[in-house]
Design a protein that fits this description.
- The complex is a heterodimer.
- Chain A is an alpha/beta fold.
- Chain A has three domains: 22-225; 231-321, Elongation Factor Tu (Ef-tu), domain 3; 326-445, 3-Layer(aba) Sandwich (Rossmann fold), CATH 3.40.50.
- Helices cover 51% and strands 15% of the residues of chain A.
- In chain A, strands 9-8-7-10-11 form a five-stranded parallel beta sheet, with helices on both faces.
- Chain A is elongated.
- By secondary structure, chain B is α+β, with helices and mostly antiparallel strands.
- Chain B is built from four helices and five strands, in the order ααβββββαα.
- In chain B, β3 and β4 (80-89) form a beta hairpin.
- The radius of gyration of chain B is 23 Å and the shape is rod-shaped.
- The chains are: A alpha/beta, B alpha+beta.
- The A-B interface holds A 37, 40-41, 44-48, 51-53, 56-57, 60-61, 89-90, 93, 97, 101, 104-105, 117, 120-122, 131, 135-137, 189-190, 192, 195-196, 419, 426-427, 430, 440, 443, 445, 447 and B 2-6, 12, 16-17, 20, 24-25, 27-28, 31-36, 78, 104-107, 110-111, 114, 135-136, 138.
């Protein structure tokens, strides 16, 4: 690993910070919603009486819901632009937010349309529901799709999500594709904005086929290609600290994968009990042409099983994803703050980030400092500083406040801060850093909490 | 917004709901709320309308005392054209058939499946085009009325 430091005589200038494409992407997504509303506006003559208001609102809700379904699928298609430039965590949060909104729109669509039709026909809501369900084409399929979407929505709600297994949640979530497919038919067969309007139909097909292509390409073909090309296998497993293990993975031509320090991959170990779970773990060292390394803390069943992996076990990986990279740098000075196993991406960045780097590592005890020896070695090579924040005697927690941070790093507000650790830890430090005058655009953080 | 900023989910839910509801209400309220005159209707009752070959009221057979069949104008409505054919026996309206009416999508089919027979009953009772709008089928009713009127006009004219 010393080769990385051969050129480190002169501090390399940080690259010009690349702007995140979040704003243009959001603008496109909102623009699409506006276009959908414009379609309704164009096709709607007058809104007469209660029935007119109800069906009108129901149609707007339905159109927006159909659009949102496509967006939801697209956001999770693992498009590199979204995953690496905007950040997987941020895109996932958008997806979750849009998902909740979509379920609400779906409820509104169903209720408003049925009430509106019932008012128009002067029949009861029950009769109208039966007529629509049984006599209208594509409605049975759409109903099945709706049931799936509601099930996914319920299982994803925070309160329920905590109680169900990850696999159950994940595989139910995959059924969303079926739900979207099932409900697509009724949109074109019954949507009065599509029945007579050929350009609108074409646009709708293009939207859905476009999203299907993104999913097929980036979620299926790209991973297949990656794994065929790189042939990943477990090389060795090392204990780093109590309950913390590093897994070294061997593969071919790994430099062509384009993984960068600070990024992660989704790993699936093809062995008993782990085959069906894909878990994101950050690279804990800069990738080498033949080796990758991750470091995992035994928190759940899956991460505990990592310690028992046998050399030679085949590995299926997807990625690289994540935007916590050198691209986010805006200045010559960086402060990396790690909480516990949050050290993993920062360990890789600590070796490779250009400029002056300081690492602040929070752990309970000296024994809990995973990768400590390596960090010291890197610090010596590149003349960087490592600070530790350990519990004092009697388990007293170190104080990580604005004042203590300023004392440790005097020109704190001139630094880019890379932050990785448990959510509460990251939250507290964020507040302390903001108080110290570090602006939002210099606090770089990635988290998988929704 | 920074991902670590304390977010207030409740406030966001309230804001999103309020924005959506008010947006929808605004959109709907900006649309006209009266039953509009059927599109193109102003001109179509005139027998000299452009596509007179297909839409002009045409009659066939019989004298004023016998059985006559006449086809009314094709009246363009928002959901498609409406055209009726009438049968007159000794000047009395004995049958009205809707030749064309919107049935492009199932919703139209459902509405017109009850609206058209009801309009026909009304017309036979009234013996004129002076018939009520069927609720839920405003456009079809308006088109039906105009096409019927044009057929009756050509019978008398």
């Amino acid at each position: 690993m010393t080769t990385a430091y051969a050129q480190r005589r002169v501090a390399p200038a940080p690259p010009a910070p690349r702007r995140s494409p979040a704003v243009p992407v959001l603008a496109v997504l909102w623009g699409g919603a506006a276009a959908v509303i414009a379609l309704w506006w164009h096709d709607t003559g007058s809104v007469v009486g209660t029935a007119g208001w109800l069906t009108g609102a129901g149609r707007i809700a339905g159109l927006l819901c159909g659009y949102a379904c496509a967006v939801l699928v697209g956001l999770m298609a693992r498009v590199p632009l979204l995953e690496r430039r905007i950040g997987s965590d941020r895109v996932t949060r958008w997806h979750a937010m849009a998902g909740r909104y979509t379920v609400c729109l779906l409820v509104a669509h169903i209720v408003l349309i049925l009430l509106g039709y019932a008012a128009q026909d002067g029949s009861s809501i029950v009769d109208e529901t039966i007529t629509v369900l049984l006599d209208y084409p594509e409605m049975l399929k759409a109903t099945a799709g709706t049931v799936i979407l509601f099930a996914v929505g319920i299982v994803s709600a925070r309160a329920v999500r905590r109680r169900v297994g990850h696999e159950f949640w994940y595989y139910l979530h995959l059924l969303t594709y079926a739900a979207v497919f099932l409900s697509f038919g009724h949109q074109l067969a019954l949507g009065s904005d599509f029945t007579g309007d050929v350009p609108a139909r074409i646009a709708w097909y293009a939207l859905y086929l476009g999203m299907a292509t993104l999913v097929g390409w980036f979620r299926i073909l790209a991973p297949v290609r990656l794994n065929l090309r790189h042939r990943l296998r477990v090389d060795s497993v090392h204990r780093e600290a109590p309950g913390v293990y590093s897994v070294v993975i061997r593969g071919r031509r790994l430099h062509e994968m384009g993984a960068r320090p600070g990024q992660f991959l989704r790993w699936r170990f093809l062995t008993e009990g782990m085959r069906w779970t894909s878990t994101p773990y950050s690279l804990s060292a800069p990738p080498r042409p033949d080796l990758l390394r991750i470091t995992v803390k035994a928190l759940g069943d899956h991460s505990a099983a990592v310690a028992l992996l046998r050399p030679g076990t085949r590995v299926w990986a997807e990625g690289p994803y994540g935007s916590l990279t050198a691209d986010r740098q805006t200045s010559h000075k960086s402060l990396l703050i790690a909480g516990g196993v949050g050290i993993t991406p920062l360990r890789a960045l600590f070796e490779t980030l250009p400029g002056d780097v300081t690492l602040l590592y929070r752990a309970r005890t000296v024994e809990d400092l995973a990768l400590g020896g390596e960090l010291e070695a890197v610090a010596r090579w590149r003349g960087a500083k490592v600070l530790y924040a350990l519990n004092g005697s009697h388990g007293r927690r170190p104080d990580l406040t604005t004042r203590s941070l300023r004392a440790a790093v005097p020109d704190l507000d001139a630094h880019d801060v890379y932050l990785c650790g448990p959510h509460g830890f990251a939250r507290d430090l964020y507040e302390a850093l903001r108080t110290a005058g570090v602006p939002d655009n210099r606090i770089h953080h990635e988290s998988f909490e929704l | 917004m920074h991902t670590l900023k304390t977010n207030r989910p409740l406030r966001r839910i309230v804001l999103a709901s309020a924005a959506t509801v008010s947006g929808m209400v605004l959109l709907l309220s900006l649309k006209p709320h009266t039953t509009p005159a059927v599109a193109g209707s102003a001109a179509s009752p005139a027998p000299s309308s452009g596509s007179s070959t297909s839409s002009g009221a045409t009659g066939s057979g019989g004298s004023a005392t016998g059985t006559r069949t006449l086809t009314g104008d094709s009246v363009q409505t928002r959901y498609g054209p409406v055209q009726v054919r009438i049968t007159l026996k000794s000047g009395r309206l004995t049958d009205v058939t809707a030749v064309t009416y919107p049935q492009e999508n199932p919703r139209d089919q459902q509405i017109n499946a009850y609206a058209v027979p009801q309009l026909t009953r009304e017309a036979l009772t009234a013996q004129s085009a002076d018939i009520d709008t069927v609720s839920g089928a405003t456009y079809t009713s308006e088109g039906y009325r105009q096409s019927l009127q044009s057929a009756l006009d050509s019978a008398n004219g």
